């Protein structure tokens, strides 16, 4: 796209091998391109009027989207859902469902759902929605954004909204406030990532969330935040997706069955309504799980009150703005990659017992890292984007360290010292690494150290067993080319 047409949204529809490209020109219209050859435009039309305006004309308005489906008349149609803030010349849809093919009276990129509850022109300007992330999981669609409470209260807080993927009327749209720190010091979401936590972090999250059991296969939402209270500080908080969903279930059941009350406290309200507290009541037609996706006679939309927010303590705090996040699992441990406003990407061992140790990944560009960090299919490389540059960097550089001490000083979960080969490497690149103590993991901070020999002297022509002392055992000493070859084994304990 040309330099005056800012890319607002890029989405991949892998099943059809197409790329959705939404820009800022012509009031934010999109095109379809061949994913294998992005220069090949499959579809573009600037003559369909307002129905085709998808993104925003303004560079500062954030737009997010996610691929989904829409079933009508037994036919499953490809669509994408879009969440965006409000620009001066934008259409007023807070959330829209856009079709990716012509179907009857609908044309490509047409908005095919009219749900006034979350699309009214009267609120989009007042609430200052700033969308940062969207994803689908287990037949739900989620949007992460920050907003105010409206014109009377301009404090900003972060919200995750959820609705059923097959809810064609948005009846199930519900918002849950997310707090980062007990006092919600870090109040404004910047970027997010959904991924598995690995065995160690899953165990840590389970112990800190007694009502939620997190396994290494479960999903966790990792979010970076900035602070209006301290503009020079930012943080990352983690929310198990099961904890988020449990909170959503409590919200809807409280509204449908308990007049919006939990433990004699009102926990929900209707956002964007003139009388927000008059939405909930007892509905005798509602059974426990029959209306998870709402219904026309049920109140919609819903939102949690601040007292019922889901809170988490920061796992990373930094004195710079964290603009991006991605998480991988190595050796059962979660490793976070955090982009910054200064163009750096920091690698942090999230499941370490002592937080704070970090490395810089690659060379900083000086330009702010965009909110989407992406792994390649092998998860061996990370794509880092800034305003004018895309970089592909390896997630580890173990081989650059040539001594055991340098290797373990990194505390890098990807790396370890390969004892028998004398190199710093990933475990899979170390021969015989499945044998005990032949690969010394970097975060363990242990290297081979010869402490004593017994006997202290030995003829170079003689081979014999040498007794171990402390934590090391000599397996053999052998003469070769007038030199002694000493093979030792580390003994834990």
UniProtKB/TrEMBL annotation:
Q: Which GO terms describe its molecular function?
A: semaphorin receptor activity
Record has Mitochondrion as a keyword = no
Pfam families found in the cross-reference section: PSI, Sema
On whether Disulfide bond is a keyword of this UniProt record, the answer is yes
Give the GO cellular component terms, alphabetically: plasma membrane; semaphorin receptor complex
Cell compartment(s), UniProt: Membrane
Q: Which GO terms describe its biological process?
A: axon guidance; negative regulation of cell adhesion; positive regulation of axonogenesis; regulation of cell migration; regulation of cell shape
The chain positions of domain Sema read 1-395
Key words of the record: Disulfide bond, Glycoprotein, Membrane
Q: Which domain of life is it from?
A: Eukaryota
The record ties this protein, via SMART domains, to:
PSI, Sema
Q: What is this protein called?
A: Plexin b2a, tandem duplicate 2
Q: Which organism is it from?
A: Oryzias melastigma
């Amino acid at each position: 796209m040309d330099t005056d047409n800012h890319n607002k949204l890029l989405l991949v529809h892998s099943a059809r091998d197409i790329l959705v490209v939404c820009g800022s020109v012509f009031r934010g219209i999109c095109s379809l391109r061949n994913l294998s050859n992005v220069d090949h435009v499959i579809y573009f039309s600037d003559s369909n009027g307002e129905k085709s305006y998808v993104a925003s004309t303004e560079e500062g308005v954030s737009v997010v989207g996610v691929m989904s489906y829409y079933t009508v008349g037994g036919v499953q149609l490809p669509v994408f859902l879009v969440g965006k803030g409000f620009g001066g010349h934008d259409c007023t849809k807070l959330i829209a469902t856009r079709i990716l093919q012509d179907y009857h009276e609908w044309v490509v990129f047409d908005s095919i759902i009219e749900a006034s509850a979350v699309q009214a022109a009267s609120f989009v300007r007042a609430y200052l929605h700033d969308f940062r992330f969207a994803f689908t999981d287990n037949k739900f669609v989620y949007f992460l954004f920050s907003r105010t409470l409206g014109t009377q209260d301009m404090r900003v807080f972060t919200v995750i909204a959820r609705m059923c993927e097959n809810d064609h009327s948005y009846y199930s749209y519900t918002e849950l406030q997310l707090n980062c720190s007990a006092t919600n010091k870090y109040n404004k979401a910047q970027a997010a990532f959904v991924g598995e936590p690995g065995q160690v972090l899953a165990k840590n999250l389970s112990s800190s969330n007694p009502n939620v059991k997190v396994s290494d296969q479960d999903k966790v939402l990792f979010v970076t935040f900035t602070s209006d209270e301290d503009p020079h500080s930012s943080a990352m908080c983690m929310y198990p997706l099961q904890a988020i969903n449990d909170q959503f279930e409590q919200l809807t059941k409280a509204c449908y069955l308990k007049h919006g009350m939990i433990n004699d406290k009102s926990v929900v309200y209707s956002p964007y309504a003139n009388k927000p507290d008059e939405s909930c009541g007892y509905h005798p037609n509602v059974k426990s799980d029959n209306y998870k996706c709402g219904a026309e006679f049920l109140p919609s939309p819903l939102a949690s009150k601040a007292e019922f927010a889901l809170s988490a303590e920061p796992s990373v705090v930094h004195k710079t703005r964290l603009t991006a996040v991605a998480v991988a699992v190595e050796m059962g441990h979660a490793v976070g990659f955090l982009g910054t406003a200064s163009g750096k990407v920091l690698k942090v061992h999230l499941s370490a017992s002592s937080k704070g140790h970090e490395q810089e990944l690659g060379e900083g560009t000086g330009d702010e890292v965009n909110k989407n960090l992406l792994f390649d299919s092998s998860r061996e490389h990370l794509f880092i984007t800034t305003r004018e540059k895309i970089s592909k960097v390896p997630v580890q550089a173990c081989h650059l360290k040539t001594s055991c001490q340098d290797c373990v000083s990194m505390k890098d979960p990807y790396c370890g010292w390969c004892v028998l080969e004398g190199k710093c490497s990933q475990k899979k690149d170390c021969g015989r690494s499945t044998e005990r103590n032949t690969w010394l993991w970097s975060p363990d901070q242990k290297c081979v150290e010869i402490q004593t020999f017994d006997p202290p002297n030995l003829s170079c022509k003689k081979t014999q067993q040498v007794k171990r002392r402390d934590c090391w055992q000599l397996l053999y000493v052998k003469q070769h080319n007038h030199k002694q070859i000493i093979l030792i084994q580390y003994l834990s304990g």
